[in-house]
Amino acid sequence: MNYSVKKGDAVKIIAGNDKGKTGTILSVDASKGKVIVKGDGLTTQKHFVKPRSAQERGGIVEKERAIDVSNVMIICPTCGKATKVAHKVEVVDGKTVKTRICKECQASLDEVKASKAKTAAKKAAPKKTTAKKAPAKKAAAADKE
Fold first, then answer.
1. How far, in Å, CA of 55 to CA of 22, rounded?
2. What's the gap between Cα 28 and its chain centre?
3. pLDDT tens digits for range 92-143
4. CA distances from 91 to 13, 35, 57, 111 (A)
5. DSSP line for 118-131
6. Range(s) of the chain covered by CATH 2.30.30.30
7. Which CATH architecture fits 1-47+61-75?
8. Which of 9, 73, 93, 107 is the least buried, fewest Cβ under 10 Å from its Cβ?
9. What is the dihedral of CA 15, 21, 25, 26, to 10 degrees?
10. CB 12 within 8 A of CB 83
11. Helices marked H in the chain — which ranges?
């Protein structure tokens, strides 16, 4: 199933033990409908790790807990609010591109796709070339000989 959250998105947790806290998404598991969120003050999962060799250390390890996708909302980078996600389909350079937009301020949540389109336009523009001059020391040494 497709979800409107992606790796690297800033999210706010809207339900559960960590309600009201914010963090960033480390991974999305679409088959289970879970996301792993990293942030300060979020509850973690503790488990014991047994050392497998003499060089490894064992002990209690904390790792981020998986949270259900329905319990997080994306934070818009422009308005800074937790928002619902709308989708907009555009044609850029002959290709259809589906972008996520904020329902509050209509800003794009996919800056990466927008920046790729800008860099493609810059690459298509003709480049200016400049001739490099030879260093003055080498030219002076060549004149003395």
1. 36
2. 12
3. 888 998 889 998 888 888 875 445 445 544 555 555 556 566 566 655 566 6
4. 34, 30, 53, 16
5. HHHHHHHSPPP--P
6. 1-47+61-75
7. Roll (2.30)
8. 93
9. -110
10. no
11. 111-124, 136-144
